[in-house]
Amino acid sequence: MNLISAVKTCLRNYATFRGRAPRSEFWWFILFFFLVSVVLATIETAVFGIGEVSHVDGGYEWQSNGGPLTVLFSLAMVLPMLAVTVRRLHDVGKSGWFILIGLIPLIGGLVLLFFYVQPSQQGPNQFGASPNGGPPPLP
Q: What value does the CA radius of gyration of the chain take, rounded to a whole number of Å?
């Protein structure tokens, strides 16, 4: 799965909390969200003057204060991001409710990161068929 197909899949299934999402779909969508947020924040700084660029020792520092474009994009992506995260947890055999572990400071985020980087469970599990098409062929 590439960036374009992952974004299309996530936006098409923006409110689908059933099924499974492979690692590639999840991480490509995270990258898409990050890149678009940076581009929008840069536009807001350049066009609207929201944010600031300052000179520091050895370079420049940029700070964005979250303008209207970034806020609207983030709000539009809440449901698709939540849905792909739940489907990713399903793919490793965990309930979507495990997302609430993230509310535990530091430890919760690390546990979720561990789940997100795990390989997909081979074959079907209680959440559906494998999004990767089943087990790999035998040599």
A: 18
Q: Is residue 128 part of a domain?
A: no
pTM for the full model?
Answer: 0.85
How remote is the C-alpha of 98 from its chain's centroid? Answer: 16
Element containing residue 77 per DSSP (H, E): helix 68-91
Contact between 53 and 65 (Cβ < 8 Å): no
In a domain, 110, yes or no: yes
- Please state the domain count of the chain: 1
Evaluate whether residue 134 is within a structural domain.
no
DSSP secondary structure letter of residue 2: -
pLDDT of residue 35: 97
Q: What does pLDDT average to over the chain? A: 90
**Rounded distance, CA 86 to CA 134, Å?**
20
pLDDT at 135: 54
Contacts of 89 (CB under 8 A, 6+ apart): 95, 96, 98, 99, 115
Instruction: Please check whether residue 123 lies inside any domain of the structure.
Output: no
Range of the domain at 75: 3-117
